[in-house]
# Entry
Amino acid sequence: MIILGISAFYHDSAAALVENGKVRYAAQEERFTRKKNDASFPVHAIRFCLSEAEYSLNDVDAIAYYEKPFLKFERLLETYYAFAPKGFLSFAKAMPVWLTEKLFMKQVIRKHLKNIGALKKLSVPIRFPEHHLSHAASAFYTSPFERSAFLTVDGVGEWATTSFGMADRTEGVRILGELHFPDSPGLFYSSFTYFLGFEVNAGEYKMMGLAPYSNASSKNVQHFVQCIKQHLIDLRPDGSFQLNKAYFAYPVGLRMVNDRQWEKLFACKRRQPDAPLLQVHADLAMAAQLVLEEILLNMLRHVKAQTKARYLCMAGGVALNCVANSVLHAQQVFDDIFIQPAAGDAGGALGAALAVAHIGQNTQPETNHTPFSPYLGVKSSHHNIVQLLRTHHCTYNYIENNDDLMQQTAHHLAANKVVGWFRGRAEFGPRALGNRSILASASHPEMQRTLNLKIKFREGFRPFAPAVCAEDYDTWFEPGKQSYYMQFTGKIKQAKRIPLPGGFEDWSLDEKRQFPKSALPAITHIDYSARIQVVTQEINPDFWNLLQAYKKVSQVGVLINTSFNVKDEPIVNTPEDALACFMKTEMDVLVLENCIIEK
Amino acid sequence: MEFLRDFFLFLKERKKWWLVPLLLIFLLLGALLFFSSGSALAPFIYTLF
# Structure
C-alpha cells in the first residue's frame, strides 16, 4: 500500500511517501523553492518522492493530509464568534482564503495533483487525520518502542494545542486527553518570541539560544517568572493551564500579545527586530523558558499518571525545544523519551501517511529494530556534480576512495578550514545531521565568531552544535540522553570546562559570548550546554568515518556541525545550491560527494 | 456536491448545526464580493440593495 502524506498551507509544507508502512522518502518544499518555511502546496517535494520511488500518482493508494480543515474552520468561526466584535480585521483577512480555498481542501489537493501528473484513479481516497494524531503517529511509528505514551505539543492544530495518549503497535494510537485553543504552550512561548523581536514560528529557537545568557536564579528572572505566573498563566495540577486572555491578542488579533499591557507588566519595551539584545531580553527569554519547562513537566507527570507507560514519544513544534526536552528527560518521569527529527509541522506529512498506513488496518506494524533514518531527501549523482563543476569552470579534485576523501577532509578541518559537506540524501527536519552540513573545528577559539560573521551571517549570540561519535561521547560530555537528531542538549564534561571568572554575570552579552568556556569553545554555550548530535556507524557511516579520521589527525573527536545555509535561507538541497552558498560565503572547502573544491 | 456531502457529514458528526446559517451568510457574502468585482452582474447588485 502506497500512501502519500502532505502537509501544506500554514508553514513548513512537506511530502512523505510511505510504502507498506515503511517511510521511503520525505522532503520539505522549502528545500526546492528556496523560500524559508515555504507553506505552498509541496509540488516539488511530491514530485521528488514519487520519482525517487519510481512511481506515478496513479500508483498511490491513498493521500493523507495532515489535519482536518472542517474542524479547523469550526474553531475559527467559534473563536471569532466568542470574541466578537473584536477581531473583525483578522476575521476579514482570514475568511476569503477559507471560503475560496482551505475549506475545499479535497478539491484543492486534487487540482494541485493534476498539475503534477495524471490522476487517473479519481477515486483515490484523501484522508484527513487530525493534526495531533498526525504528530503522534509521526512520533510513535518512527520510535523503537513496542508500546508507549505520547505527548504532542504545538501552537495549534484544529482545536487541540496539546494531546496525550497511548500508542501500541497492535492497538494503534489512542488520544486520551487534549488541551484546546486558545490555551496553547506553543503560542504562549511564541508570544515571548514576538515580544522579544524575533519572528513567530521561525525565531523560537533563537529565543531558546538567548535564554542561557541569563541566570535562572537571578532576581530579575525570578521576578519575571512570578509576573508570568501571577498575570499570564494559571497552572493547574492536572498539567493543563489557562492563559489570561486579557494579555494575549493572538486568538483573533493580528498580533501575538497586547503590547502595552506586556510592556507595563515587565517594565520593558517590546524589542524591535533590529534593536540590540540587552540583558533584560535574555532574562525574559529565560523566564519564558522556565515556565514552559514547568508546563511540560506538569503535563509529563499527568501523562505518566494516566498511562503508566514506561516510554514516551513527543512531537509538535514545542518538542523541538531541545533545552526543555533535556530537562524533561533528566526528571526521569519516563525511562526514555523519543523525538523524531521532523517533530514540527513538516513531520505532519510523515505522520499523516503513517497514521493512514497503520491505524484501523488489520496489519500489525513491526517494531523498528534500527534507528529511524532522517536521510530521506534528495541525493545527487556523481555525473550531475561533475557536469555542474565543469559548467562553472571549477577546479576540483575527484577522490574515488572514500577513506582518502575522509582523510583529506580531516586534514582541512584540522587546519581550521571551514568545510561545506554535501553527501548522501538530504535530512528530513530542521537540523543538518551530517549530509548537508558546514563543518569546522570545535576547539578553535575564534571559530564561532568566524562562522557567525563570515559564513552564516547570523546573530553572534547563537551557539553552534557539535557532532561526536558515540564512542567518544563520554570523553567530552557528561553522561546524559544521547540523540541522533540533536533533540536534546548535554553538558560539557567538568574536566574540559574553563571556570567562569568572578563578576561574569555583570559582563555584557557579547563579552560573555567571547569568553572561552571549555576546550571546545565554539560549541560550548554559556551554561556549558551543547546540542549534541551523536553519530554511529549504523546511522551515518560516512559522517562517522569523517569524525574518526578527524580524531586521528587532531586528537579531538568533535566537530561543529551547523546547517549548510546562510541566515534566513533553507538548508541547501542540490549541488547547485551548495556551490552557490560556497561561492557567496568565506567557506574554504566544499565537498560534493567525492569531489573536493578549494578556494 | 462532494463538498456539500462531506460538510453535511461533518456537521452531523459534530452536531454543530448552528454553523449552517453562519456559513450560508458567509458564502452569500463571498459570492456577492466576487460578483461585484468586475463581473457582468456588478451593475445589478447595487440596485438589489
Notes: Chain B touches chain A at residues 2-3, 6-7, 10, 14, 16, 19, 22-23, 26-27, 30, 33 (CB under 8 Å). The radius of gyration of chain B is 15 Å. The longest helix of chain B spans residues 19-36. Chain B has three helices and no strands.
